[in-house]
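Hi all, posting the design record for the shared folder.

TITLE: backbone redesign
STEP: 1 of 1
STRUCTURE INPUT:
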């Protein structure tokens, strides 16, 4: 590629909303441009990187025996009604209507569509196991789109879905996918960890996430310093044994609270005066979720305070997900122990500090009384977790626990029969009997990987691409091409030779000052840079610098070809 004929949109300014370095560098290097909240255009430069990731993902999926297909992004409501997820999926589901007033969603994921395909296509156990995948745009109306393409609303995902007659077969494909994922992230040149993950609302037997280790990661991981043990903190059980977390208070009791929706209702139902209610968060989810917080005095401890951010009183949140985001908690990591689905929102606190609360549950018309915050609350702040967890024996008995932050770039799941059952996706077994199929699903955040890689690999002046992801492996920079036909011709010939050798090369023939040219190449992270100048030509050398080198060195053409393999 000749840069004079390309569009390179490097800029100096970063927008104020670019909080993390990958977002800043993607804007500065001109890889992405924001269209609207959570919606990004991939520039020609950005797309080159995205396609590199896609290519590796596709190659490894094919190698692992998965078969590529492509499903529609827009999906009919009726199908989502069949699994109950039209209601349950919550605010992330973007619902749309066509001109005939028929309802659709823009697919956030494709279990429904692929299972519909499978129930029509697959008739016999002999067709199993089979693993379909696609690389396709998803839309999730994230409550807080941020960090650029890291948590976008529209993003590119590789999603695969496998179908099986037996659990054994499912477990086998799961293992194959696990290994394929490990190969993908290794080939991409990323430092990652596979961690046990919460199966949460989806249910199922086994689940692992692939996490790129980075300080800016939104996920918190516990891992052993001596074994392969690693788990997402969302999977609270992972650390519970290490923490020695107490059982729920004996006093904790579930109470039915029909139609308790407002502060007045709370007062009426529990006899709690309004001044003791710290904050009221009315949650009107699909299932009419209700949660309320204390209002009043301010000696709440920090753990609790961290869950009560700057929400206006009487905020109305649309879904469980919004509550979780609003209170800064994650599913499975909140609420009293033993009640993993409980929102830790407290409506009353007795004179005894931090004991005997009333908590709003995230189930409709339910509260818990007698919660003891100290005993029952899950620990959610990083600092708390660090204090409690680090140094404790790992649950597998080998080594001690450490914690790290990670970015979830992949997720593998044994779904079991959940979707196939709901959609009645069956095959005939060898006895001619109908059997509901078992499923696995396997996602990779293709576009997120690009941002995650930058988080892991950058310095003060720009991106440091792993070779496998670089937009070009080498850059040939020409000094003063206009003034010297010889320099221009030498650069041209070097560029042609590199290209002929299959080395993806960009020729910087824009005629910029050397400083500006080098700054651009460093910013966009090209792994190898050679400079063709009059001085070098006279000496018969090229000035070479790897992106990770501190200084450049003079080398011959042949030495360059050797370096670039
Ligand atoms: P997260 O916990 O970050 O919200 P998720 O668990 O909701 O992710 P999955 O349903 O497991 O995501 O989707 C598969 C993959 O898609 C994730 O591992 C992640 O890499 C990617 N992904 C999910 N949401 C987004 C998003 N909003 N923007 C970019 N990539 C995403
Ligand atoms: Mg999510
Ligand atoms: Mg997740
Ligand atoms: Mg996930």
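Okay, here is what came back for every position:
SEQUENCE:
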């Amino acid at each position: 590629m000749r840069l004079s004929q390309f569009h390179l949109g490097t800029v100096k300014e970063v927008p104020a909303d670019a909080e993390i370095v990958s977002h800043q560098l993607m804007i500065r290097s001109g890889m992405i441009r924001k269209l609207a909240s959570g919606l990004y255009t991939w520039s020609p430069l950005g797309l080159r990187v995205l396609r590199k990731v896609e290519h590796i993902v596709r190659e490894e999926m094919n190698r692992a025996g998965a078969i590529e297909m492509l499903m529609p992004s827009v999906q009919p409501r009726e199908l989502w009604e069949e699994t109950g997820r039209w209601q349950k999926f919550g605010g992330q589901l973007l619902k749309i209507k066509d001109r005939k007033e028929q309802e659709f969603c823009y697919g956030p994921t494709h279990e429904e569509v692929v299972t519909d395909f499978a129930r029509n296509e697959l008739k016999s156990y002999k067709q199993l196991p089979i693993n379909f995948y696609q690389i396709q745009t998803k839309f999730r109306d994230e409550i807080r789109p941020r960090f650029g393409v890291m948590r976008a609303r529209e993003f590119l995902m590789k999603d695969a879905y496998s179908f099986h007659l037996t659990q054994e077969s499912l477990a086998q494909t799961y293992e194959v996918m696990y290994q394929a994922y490990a190969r993908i992230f290794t080939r991409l040149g990323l430092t990652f960890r596979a961690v046990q993950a919460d199966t949460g609302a989806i249910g199922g037997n086994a689940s692992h996430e692939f996490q790129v280790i980075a300080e800016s990661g939104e996920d918190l991981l516990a891992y052993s310093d001596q074994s392969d043990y690693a788990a997402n903190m969302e999977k609270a059980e992972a650390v519970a044994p290490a923490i020695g977390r107490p059982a729920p208070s004996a006093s904790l009791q579930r109470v039915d609270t029909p139609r308790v929706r407002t502060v007045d209702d709370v007062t009426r139902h529990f006899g709690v005066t309004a001044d003791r209610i710290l904050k009221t968060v009315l949650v009107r989810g699909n299932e009419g979720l209700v949660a309320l917080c204390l209002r009043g005095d301010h000696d709440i401890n920090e753990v609790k305070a961290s869950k009560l951010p700057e929400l206006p009183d009487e905020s109305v949140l649309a879904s469980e997900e919004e509550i979780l985001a609003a209170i800064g908690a994650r599913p499975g990591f909140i609420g009293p122990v033993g009640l993993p689905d409980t929102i830790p929102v407290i409506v009353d606190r007795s004179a005894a500090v931090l004991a005997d609360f009333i908590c709003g549950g995230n189930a409709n018309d339910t509260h818990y009384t007698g919660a003891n915050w100290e005993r029952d609350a899950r620990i959610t702040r990083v600092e708390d977790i660090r204090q409690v967890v680090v140094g404790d024996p790992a649950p597998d008995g080998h080594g001690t626990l450490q914690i790290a932050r990670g970015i979830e770039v992949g997720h593998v799941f044994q779904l079991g029969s959940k979707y196939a059952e709901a959609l009645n996706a069956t095959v005939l077994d060898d006895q001619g009997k109908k059997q509901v199929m078992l499923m696995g699903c396997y996602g990779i955040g293709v576009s997120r990987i690009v941002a995650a890689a930058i988080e892991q690999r950058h310095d003060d002046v720009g991106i440091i691409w792993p070779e496998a992801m670089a937009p070009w492996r080498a850059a040939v920079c020409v000094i003063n091409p206009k003034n010297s036909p010889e320099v221009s011709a030498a650069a041209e010939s070097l560029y042609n030779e590199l290209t002929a050798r299959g080395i993806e090369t960009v020729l910087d023939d824009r005629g910029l000052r050397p400083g500006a040219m080098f700054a651009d190449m460093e910013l966009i992270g090209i792994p190898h840079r050679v400079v063709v100048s009059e001085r070098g030509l006279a000496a018969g050398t090229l000035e070479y610098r790897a992106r990770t080198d501190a200084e450049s060195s003079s080398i011959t053409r042949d030495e360059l070809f050797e370096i670039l393999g």
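COMMENT: The pocket of magnesium ion (ligand 4) is lined by residues 408, 411 (CB under 6 Å).
Let me know if anyone wants the other runs.
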